[in-house]
Design brief:
This protein has 366 residues and is α/β, with parallel strands linked by helices. The chain has 2 domains: 4-220, DHBP synthase (Alpha-Beta Complex), CATH 3.90.870.10; 244-357, Threonylcarbamoyl-AMP synthase, C-terminal domain (Rossmann fold). It has helices at residues 15-26, 48-58, 73-79, 85-94, 128-137, 156-163, 202-209, 253-268, 302-316, 335-345; strands spanning 4-7, 31-33, 40-44, 67-69, 99-104, 119-123, 140-142, 169-172, 183-186, 193-196, 244-247, 274-279, 292-297, 323-327, 348-350, 356-357, 363-364. The strands form 3 sheets. It has a 10-stranded mixed beta sheet, with helices on both faces. The protein is globular, with a radius of gyration of 21 Å. The structure holds threonylcarbamoyladenylate and magnesium ion.
Length: 366
C-alpha cells in the first residue's frame, strides 16, 4: 500500500494538507494523526468498513473497542445516546484534553468501532491538528497507532515505523505532549470506575466530578484475575521484545534493583547482558553493575517520566541486551499511569522482600 506522509507543524497548520487527509478519511481511508497523548490511527466513526481496516492494520483483536474522537459538543450528541448532567458539566472543564468518558452509544456510530458494545468511549483531544482534521471529517474512531501489543507511538517517526505501508496517510507533527494515553472513566457504572489511568490525573477528574472514582487492581495494571474483564483490559500491552522486570517503588528502590541485577546474573549465567532503566537521581549507581543504563527522567518529575516512557521501551530493543530491569515510580498523579504501563509491559513484577523468580529458572530467595 502507498502511504502518503504529511508533515504538519502544530504552530503553522497547512490547511491544504489537512484537507487532503480529511478527504482520505471521508472516502473510507485510515489516517495516522497526532494527539496530545499519543498518535492515533483513525477512520470515520460512521463507516464500519473503514473501521474494520484499522483492526487489520494494527493486527488488533476485533473485540477490543476504539475511542471516538470529536472536536465539538454537537458531535458528542451525535455519538452518544445521552449525556448525564454531571458529565456535561465536567467536560466543560476537562475538554479538550486527555479525558475519555464511557457513555451509552448512539445509533450512528459503527458497531465495529465499539465491538458491538452498547457503550462508546469518547474524547475531545487537545491537539490543533487533530481538532482541524475532525472538524473537517466528523467523528473519528481511533486506537493508538502502534501494531497491537507494542508501545504506543509518541513521535511521528515511531508511528511511521509501525504504520508505513499499513495506513493510507501519516501526519507527522513531531513529539506528543504527554506520551501516555488518555484517562478512561466508565460513567455508565455507579459509582464511576477508572478503566485506564492516563495523562489526566484521576484525582483531578474526581475533583471536577465531585464524586469518588473506583480504582481497581486491574486499573493499576496488575495481572488480571480469572474473572471476566472489561474489553481491552485483557490483552498484553506495551511490551518490548526484551524481557522486562519491574521493581515496585519505594524510597530506596535502587537497593532492590541492585539485588535483582545480582540474581539475574547468577541465574542467567555469565555473558548475559543486563540493562537498567532508572531515574536521573539513581542511574549512576548501576554503572559498572549493568551493561546498559537508560534514564527515563527525574523521579521528582513524573510528567517527564511519562513522556519518555514509550520512547525508552522502544529504544530498549535496540540495545542488544538479554533482560532489563526498571525502577518503579510513586503511584501519585501521572505515576498511576506510568505504573499501569510498566506493570503491563513487564514479564515480572518484583516487590520488596519477595522471592525472586526469573522466568525459566527456579525461585531464588534474596
Ligand atoms: O490517548 C488516547 O486515548 C489514545 C489517543 C489516540 O486518543 N487512544 C488510545 O486508544 O489509547 P486505544 O484503543 O489504544 O485504547 C483505548 C482503550 C482500549 O483499552 C479499549 O478496550 C478501551 O479503551 N475502550 C474503548 N471503548 C470501550 C468501551 N466501549 N468499553 C470498554 N472499554 C473501551
Ligand atoms: Mg493502544
Amino acid at each position: 500500500m502507498l502511504t502518503r506522509v504529511y508533515r504538519i507543524a502544530v504552530d503553522n497548520i497547512d490547511e491544504g494538507s489537512v484537507r487532503e487527509c480529511c478527504e482520505i478519511v471521508s472516502r473510507g481511508g485510515i489516517v495516522v494523526f497526532p494527539t496530545e497523548t499519543v498518535y492515533g490511527l483513525g477512520a470515520s466513526a460512521y463507516n464500519g468498513e473503514a473501521v474494520k481496516r484499522i483492526f487489520i492494520a494494527k493486527n488488533r483483536p476485533m473485540d477490543n473497542p476504539l475511542i471516538v474522537h470529536i472536536s465539538n459538543k454537537k458531535q458528542l450528541y451525535e455519538v452518544v445516546e445521552e449525556v448525564p448532567e454531571k458529565i456535561a458539566r465536567a467536560i466543560d472543564v476537562l475538554w479538550p484534553g486527555p479525558f475519555t468518558v464511557l457513555l451509552r452509544k448512539g445509533p450512528r456510530v459503527a458497531q465495529e468501532a465499539t465491538a458491538n458494545l452498547p457503550t462508546v468511549a469518547v474524547r475531545m483531544p487537545a491537539h490543533p491538528v487533530a481538532l482541524r482534521l475532525i472538524d473537517c471529517a466528523g467523528p473519528i474512531a481511533a486506537p493508538s497507532a502502534n501494531i497491537s501489543g507494542r508501545p504506543s507511538p509518541t513521535t511521528g517517526f515511531h508511528a511511521m515505523v509501525d504504520m508505513f505501508g499499513r495506513a493510507d496517510a501519516i501526519i507527522d507533527s513531531g513529539e506528543t505532549l504527554y506520551g501516555v494515553e488518555s484517562t478512561i472513566i466508565d460513567a455508565t457504572s455507579k459509582p464511576m470506575k477508572l478503566l485506564r489511568p492516563g495523562a489526566m490525573p484521576v484525582e483531578k477528574i474526581a475533583e471536577v466530578l465531585g464524586e469518588e472514582i473506583i480504582i481497581t487492581p486491574e486499573a493499576r495494571g496488575y495481572r488480571e484475575s480469572e474473572r471476566a474483564l472489561a474489553p481491552g483490559m485483557k490483552y498484553k500491552h506495551y511490551s518490548p521484545e526484551t524481557p522486562l522486570i519491574l521493581v515496585e517503588y519505594r524510597e530506596d528502590v535502587e537497593k532492590m534493583v541492585e539485588d535483582v541485577i545480582r540474581v539475574v546474573e547468577e541465574v542467567g549465567g555469565t555473558g548475559k547482558k543486563v540493562a537498567v532503566i532508572a531515574s536521573s537521581e539513581t542511574f549512576h549507581r548501576y554503572k559498572g553493575l549493568a551493561d546498559k543504563v537508560l534514564v527515563y527522567g527525574s523521579r521528582k518529575n513524573v510528567f517527564e517520566v511519562a513522556r519518555n516512557l514509550f520512547k525508552i521501551l522502544r529504544e530498549l530493543d535496540r540495545e542488544g541486551v538479554d533482560i532489563a530491569i526498571v525502577e518503579g515510580v510513586e503511584e501519585k498523579g501521572l505515576g498511576l499511569a506510568v505504573m499501569n504501563r510498566l506493570r503491563k509491559a513487564s514479564s515480572k513484577v518484583v516487590k520488596y522482600h519477595q522471592n525472586l523468580y526469573i522466568p525459566g529458572h527456579n525461585s531464588i530467595q534474596t
